[in-house]
Amino acid sequence: MIVLSRRGQRGNPTTTDAATSGDRLGATVRAVGLAIGVAYVIRLLSMGRYYAELGGVVGADCLAGLTLWRLGRIRSLPRAQLLENIGYLTVFALAIAVTVLARPMWLATAGAWPWYVAGPAVGFCLIWISGLRPAAIASGELAFLAGSKPVADTIVSSAILLAGGAAEELMFRSPALARPMSAAIQAALMGAVLFVARHHFPGWASVRRSAARIYAIEVASSLAFVILTIMSGSIYPAAVAHIISNCPSVIILIQRSRMKDS
Question: Which residue among 38, 50, 163, 242 has the highest number of C-beta atoms inside a 10 angstrom radius?
């Protein structure tokens, strides 16, 4: 998400009453997210086998987010954001590895082909409601407003966005495919809430993501991905939608990495 100051200049936003309110809201969301996260991990552990292992990964994700919230406040640390991103990327790699090794039954279920039309359609709809204009992305305008970014940060951040499209579906949507259905529905609902809340765990995210529009987009995304998973009976259509919705951010990151500091 691009951050502008009140005067539209590049850099960090000016502290305002709205920013302070956003910080308080972010703290509330983190507290709620932590409570839901604990309940979700307990639910996964109670489902046993693969889901118990996945619960351990989700627990590590929550701990990483809340630990990195402290690190996120110390912006003077060298490469602080890179360290944060490496932490998240490690969790995503664990989620994928656990799934590949466990091979749950639904891993081999692709779903009917119409869902691979619906998946990209959902992804493009999420891009549209986010307000990202294709012309602004193509021209590099959004990258310019965000400022340059080191190549190492770009590589790790891009990997997070692309791998996260798959890993977050495993972590928060795959329980919707479990049996019995009652346990699956409970886990899917808690996962949907935690998916939104975890994006607000880092301290720097509270201001950047405090706008009502951002919350609306995150909730819409979470619900859309859950519905795709349940209706298709497969994790893959939602993963396709998720990865597509993240692609504009990857493009902007690459553009930023090619800029020179002014």
Answer: 242
pLDDT in tens, 100-136: 999 999 999 999 999 999 999 999 999 999 888 889 8
Calculate helix-pair angle for 115-130, 212-232, nearest 10 degrees.
Answer: 180
109 Rama class: left (phi>0) / alpha (psi -120 to 50) / beta: beta
Give the residue among 176, 183, 190 at the shortest CA–CA distance from 230: 176
Q: Which of 101, 98, 118 is nearest to 236 (CA)?
A: 118
Neighbours of 7 (CB within 10 A): 6
pLDDT in tens, 16-39: 554 555 566 667 777 788 889 899
Q: Interior CA angle at 59 toward 55 and 65, to 5°?
A: 145
Give residue-wise pLDDT tens across range 134-147.
898 999 999 998 88
- Phi, psi (degrees; rounded to nearest 5) at 201: -65, -45
What's the rounded Cα separation, in Å, for the pair 62 and 88? 10
Residue labelled with tokens 């407003």: 145
